[in-house]
Amino acid sequence: MRTAYNVETVRAAERELMARLPEGALMQRAAAGLAAACADLLGRVYGRRVVLLVGSGDNGGDALYAGARLARRGAGVAAVLLAPERAHPAGLAALRRAGGRAVGVEGAERLIEQADLLLDGIVGIGGKGGLRPDAARLAEAAERSRAAVVAVDLPSGVDADTGEVRGAAVRADLTVTLGTHKPGLLIDPAREYAGSVRLVDIGLSLPPQAELEALQHADVRRLLPVPGGESDKYRRGVVGIAAGSARYPGAAVLAVYGALRGGAGAVRYVGPAADAVIARFPETLVSDRGPKHAGRVQAWVVGPGAGDDASAVGEVLASEVPVLVDADGLRLADRDAVRARTAPTLMTPHAGEAAALLGVPREEVEGARLASARELAGRYGATVLLKGSTTLVADAGGGAVRVNPTGTAWLATAGSGDVLSGLAGSLLASGLSALDAGSVGAYLHGLAGRFAADGAPVGAHDVAEAVPAAWRDVTDA
Ligand SMILES: NC(=O)C1=CN([C@@H]2O[C@H](COP(=O)(O)OP(=O)(O)OC[C@H]3O[C@@H](n4cnc5c(N)ncnc54)[C@H](OP(=O)(O)O)[C@@H]3O)[C@@H](O)[C@H]2O)[C@@H](O)CC1
Ligand SMILES: [K+]
């Protein structure tokens, strides 16, 4: 499991560690990791032009010490100081001793333009709000330069805790993050500014509960349902799909397709698209009597392509099994009915649907995904899977939010969400918690999307078709 901690926790861990170590030891660990990453990126250090962008905090100190190490290996190193009188004094002295030089912001553009590598030490976890004008100009010059850009701890200008970006920010090719990942490095829009991320261990001891976690293959393998020798289809779980309408029969077909790939022993379909479903998947149990009279299931999926059928949503929410609510179901679900449920509820909005539920513009949700997912989970007393470029899954009771690492832009295709709801609903029926079903579903769905796309456009049915390959990839690893 990859974990990310917020600034407050990082600060506390740093204080505790610094109290036990000689002064400056942590910064030396950071600088050693940074210099090694820069050297890897440059290939050859000797004779290369390195420019440090240096703010007045310890983030700039890290950059200065790393620059000193590169200068000792023969790089030509120049530091651009945003506030010359406040730059880290010991770091600056170390750089000068190693043969590096320091300049002010005037004339920096030319240096930046000619550099092979830029090290962004403008601001780290001490940053507040958008970059100030001088710093913003350096970030813009860095973007125009052909140099490789390495961010110290995080790209300057992005919010470490939330992933929000207000105004200019440095666009890095590589971010060398110190001690732990920060949430912003894993969540869009900030994630896109970070480039690839390398973690340097500086020995922090962090608490068991992270702010954010990202599953990896081994975690998913542990969570996937495996039928035992005693299993029959009922013990493996039956998932009920209440979806589709005369207008949107395809949503029902795709949700059933996802559900058949998700590990449940049987899929029961309820709704007006039974003929279309049976024609494609004869193994489906179909019923036209409404969710309440459809027979036992271990979990329901309601909403994909449902149009305005509020009664099916109401009947499903009144059941005592886990329920996944998606698409039209989100609009039709009564908030009090969701809050009153005792069995788990998993809501799966995209940003537009989440914005409608929260009563805010869509851009607000896209700019502040973590806060939006938590807020929605709290309001509905439900687990919320917020779909998008970085899918998040948040429980109502707080705890670490899961961020999905497998997504791909190719998944932004019609019907892809219907497949995900069937898949995650099937995992719910197999007995996974709402948090696990949502995050494992998103993981497999993202991986399947990558396999199906392989660099070319795909349709939602291709994604469903590739889920077994994703499952095997996880279990064979
Ligand atoms: N502590 C440790 O053990 C270790 C810490 N480490 C490193 O320290 C970093 C944290 O250092 P930090 O606390 O000094 O804060 P930092 O990120 O440099 O920012 C403060 C400076 O930025 C400025 N500033 C603020 N907002 C701004 C804006 N919008 N636009 C422009 N400027 C802005 C602010 O200015 P001021 O408000 O004071 O005028 C102040 O000068 C951390 O990320 C890691 O790299 C590692 O060495 C490992 C050991
Ligand atoms: K930085």
Q: What is this structure, in a nutshell?
A:
The chain is built from 19 helices and 18 strands. It is of the alpha/beta class and 477 residues long. The strands form two sheets. It has an eleven-stranded mixed beta sheet, with helices on both faces. A seven-stranded parallel beta sheet has the order 4-3-2-5-6-7-8, with helices on both faces.
Question: Could you explain the architecture of this structure?
Answer:
With 477 residues, the protein is α/β, with parallel strands linked by helices. The chain has two domains: 2-214, 3-Layer(aba) Sandwich (Rossmann fold), CATH 3.40.50; 217-476, UDP-N-acetylmuramoyl-L-alanine:D-glutamate ligase. It has helices at residues 7-18, 25-42, 58-72, 89-97, 108-114, 133-144, 190-194, 217-223, 249-260, 274-280, 310-317, 328-332, 335-339, 351-358, 362-367, 369-380, 416-429, 434-453, 460-476; strands at 2-4, 49-54, 76-81, 101-103, 117-121, 148-152, 174-178, 196-200, 212-214, 238-242, 266-270, 285-287, 299-302, 323-326, 345-348, 383-386, 392-394, 401-403. The strands form two sheets. The chain has an eleven-stranded mixed beta sheet, with helices on both faces. Helix 7 (190-194) links the parallel strand 7 (174-178) and strand 8. Helix 9 (249-260) packs across helix 10 (274-280) and helix 17 (416-429) packs across helix 19 (460-476). It is elongated and about 80 Å long. Bound molecules: ligand NPW and potassium ion. Residues 59, 120-124, 151-154, 156 line the site of potassium ion.
Write the layout of secondary structure elements.
Blueprint: E1 2-4, H1 7-18, H2 25-42, E2 49-54, H3 58-72, E3 76-81, H4 89-97, E4 101-103, H5 108-114, E5 117-121, H6 133-144, E6 148-152, E7 174-178, H7 190-194, E8 196-200, E9 212-214, H8 217-223, E10 238-242, H9 249-260, E11 266-270, H10 274-280, E12 285-287, E13 299-302, H11 310-317, E14 323-326, H12 328-332, H13 335-339, E15 345-348, H14 351-358, H15 362-367, H16 369-380, E16 383-386, E17 392-394, E18 401-403, H17 416-429, H18 434-453, H19 460-476
Parallel strand pairs: 2-3, 2-5, 3-4, 5-6, 6-7, 7-8, 9-18, 10-11, 10-13, 11-12, 13-14, 14-15, 15-16
Antiparallel strand pairs: 1-9, 16-17, 17-18
